Amino acid sequence: MKIYPNTKIYIICPGNYNSGGPELCHQLCSQLIQFGVDARMVYIEKQNFNGGDPVHDFYKKYHLPYTFEVENAEQNVLIVPEYFSEYLYISEKIQRVLWWMSVDNYIKIITQSINAIRLNPLSRPMPKFFYFGKGDDDLIHFVQSEYARQFVKLNGIADDKIYSVGDYLNQTFLRRAAQVDLSYKENIVAYNPKKGFEITKQLIKLAPDIDWRPIQNMTPEQVQELLSRAKIYIDFGKHPGKDRIPREAAISGCVVITGKQGAAANNIDINIPNEFKFDEKSTTPIEIVNKIRYVFENFPDAYKKQENYRARLLNEQKQFTKQVFNAFAVKNLPPPTVAFVQGVNENSFLLAQELFQSKELQPRFIVDDLLATTNISDKLILREQNRNYLRLNEAFIEIITRNDAKFLYHEGRIKIFALLNPNNNDFAELTDFYEAKTEDILIYELNS
After folding, report:
1. Same domain for 399 and 350
2. Confidence (pTM)
3. E strand or H helix at 77, and its extent?
4. DSSP H or E stretch at residue 285
5. What band does 316 get if pLDDT is binned at 50, 70 and 90?
6. What burial class does residue 20 get, using C-beta atoms within 10 Å of its C-beta: 0-12 exposed, 13-18 middle, 19+ buried?
């Protein structure tokens, strides 16, 4: 894969849809933009699709450009999750990447497609999908997990065509998890009823005295609240990749107990000691229940045994940045991105003009809660893709909310907060609300 100064990178993603895969797509696009690469989302129809606003509310905070068309040119790159592999064939010249987020979902979608045709061969054309060995030798393969890497290697893909590009838990979750007090942990077992419930059901029947809590019909905040109280999270599902909830549970102070299917079978994707992994084919339910009771009674010891897993999870974002940097052979990083936090006013105009002239920094965002959320377009403000931009001569600066600015700072998209003639409240907000480091704050003093 070759990246040129005029390369455009397109990332296929279901619109108006929130799950682990789409979050990873947004993380990649955000990281590429941070590297100064021209990347954008390509939203496709799934369920509840809205072409006028295809960005799910959960992902609006990323502030990513999107399109519905792909420019078919040799210098461009198309990235397609394995679940939507038919989109690999919409362009002939473009460089193509197949991203293996879930091995099991790939097999599932192919099986479903073939079964639908088998019932009535004349009902529709045969679906297009990637299949190993049919001539797609130019493809690059991204793998989200060690499980996926083993799968594509088993099917004949050479090492030089495979790049590890994982994902990471979002910073909002990690910051909240850092506040968990282990002394308040309770004898609760949390579980996902969509993952391996046949085994979980046996455990519940065998030990009705244990407090079993399903993770269902909950907001992200409610999930985190439950995980912060539970001592144990169990997951006997298929683990089609590095699933998110087991990682969220571990970071929230839970001892994780799994089966040995999919990504849980290796010691890289879920690197917990083998005593916390049970082979579903040979393990009896009573063995698992005994381990649960052991953890309840010896929680500090069991918790310590999984510290390597938690340490790796805390490093995932840095690892992701390195993986993307290597996969795209990024050479020249752009100037640091600057956000103005004092709202749209005369000071902001003066400061923006000052920074544009310096060319050592990249003015990109201005924080103004009211104007960021107002549907307006006039001589001062341009509205595009449901986002507002401040016009400054020939330049445009996106107007965002305080919450989104805080998110983008912790994501690394905002590198510097700039202020002009700040008062004590301005400076205090940066350290208290944004949690900005001193070295990331630029103070300008200009005479009126």
Report:
1. yes
2. 0.94
3. strand 77-81
4. helix 285-297
5. very high
6. middle
